């Protein structure tokens, strides 16, 4: 028997009829505070995939997890406890997949700390394996829904950048409401950015690229660093998956917005 959609979207807890939201389009920026909170609780932008971890991923998960994973909590992160330092830029990455890009960027930017959020356990094992191999000390992983992490574990104006590379596009129209990048979440993300901080998204799905551009444009505290899409910043490597697509003629759209009223950086870093 199929699980009703409303149960799927609320971690199996039925949603009362009068609490339901009508999200006809992705333009949901004008929700009331109550509806915004409900929206953030209900929609899950991921499904728990059944893929198994390899032996090496499991080993990395068990041996390095205790050192590099931070447990989800409903209070804000203590950066000094988490990274052993709290005086350098902090970048949040949402949905790192198998973590190749995360590790690549963290290796090239040793003076920044990376808080990487993912729910897929084999991917977490894969990133932990890279952390051990390279080795890296500036990544911490949270295995939890990023929406709740941003809402509860990050305080306002506490991060310098956000990376969201190839978020699940949820191709079918009836699934668009599951897309991560929608106005309420963008508003939440923007509130966590320091002035001058940036949001960098990349996608290979044109219609999602248009949506991302639109919802970032709607957020008045952000401004596009170009007029439209931007050329891929050098720090973002081209992944194997992306290369395959490019060979097949698929395009990739990079979008970078910056939080307004900033002093000196991060334009230099982009
Ligand atoms: C299409 S994959 C892209 C992975 C990677 N960024 C890349 O470029 O290859 C999207 C990833 O985002 C993760 N994800 C989606 N929504 C998430 C959420 N709310 N919290 C944490 N991870 C999420 C999924 O588990 C999945 O691994």
TrEMBL record:
Top-level lineage group: Bacteria
Binding of S-adenosyl-L-methionine, residues: 93, 118, 145, 168
EC number: 2.1.1.33
Keyword Methyltransferase: yes
Pathway: tRNA modification; N(7)-methylguanine-tRNA biosynthesis
Family: Belongs to the class I-like SAM-binding methyltransferase superfamily. TrmB family.
NCBIfam families in alphabetical order: tRNA (guanosine(46)-N7)-methyltransferase TrmB
Known function: Catalyzes the formation of N(7)-methylguanine at position 46 (m7G46) in tRNA.
Name of the featured protein: tRNA (guanine-N(7)-)-methyltransferase
């Amino acid at each position: 028997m199929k699980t009703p959609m409303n149960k799927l979207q609320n971690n199996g807890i039925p949603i009362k009829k009068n609490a339901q939201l009508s999200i006809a389009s992705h333009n949901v920026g004008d929700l009331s505070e109550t509806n915004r909170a409900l929206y953030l609780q209900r929609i899950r932008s991921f499904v728990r995939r059944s893929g198994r971890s390899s032996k090496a991923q499991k080993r990395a998960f068990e041996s390095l997890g205790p050192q590099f994973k931070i447990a989800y909590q409903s209070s804000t992160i203590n950066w000094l406890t988490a990274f052993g330092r709290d005086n350098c830029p902090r970048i949040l990455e949402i949905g790192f997949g198998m973590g190749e890009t995360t590790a690549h960027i963290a290796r090239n930017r040793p003076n920044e700390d990376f808080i990487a959020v993912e729910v897929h356990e084999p991917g977490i094992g894969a990133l932990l394996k890279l952390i051990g191999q390279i080795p890296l000390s500036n990544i911490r992983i949270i295995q939890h829904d990023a929406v709740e992490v941003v809402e509860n574990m990050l305080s306002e104006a506490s991060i310098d950048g956000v990376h969201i590379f190839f978020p699940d596009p949820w191709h079918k129209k009836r699934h668009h409401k599951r897309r991560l990048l929608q106005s309420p979440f963008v508003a939440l993300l923007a509130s966590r950015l320091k002035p001058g901080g940036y949001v960098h998204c990349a996608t290979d799905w044109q219609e999602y690229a248009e949506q991302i551009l639109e919802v970032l444009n709607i957020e008045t505290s952000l401004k596009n660093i170009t007029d439209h899409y931007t050329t891929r910043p050098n720090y973002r490597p081209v992944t194997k998956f992306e290369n395959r697509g490019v060979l097949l003629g698929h395009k990739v759209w990079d979008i970078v917005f910056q939080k307004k009223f900033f002093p000196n950086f991060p334009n230099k870093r982009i």
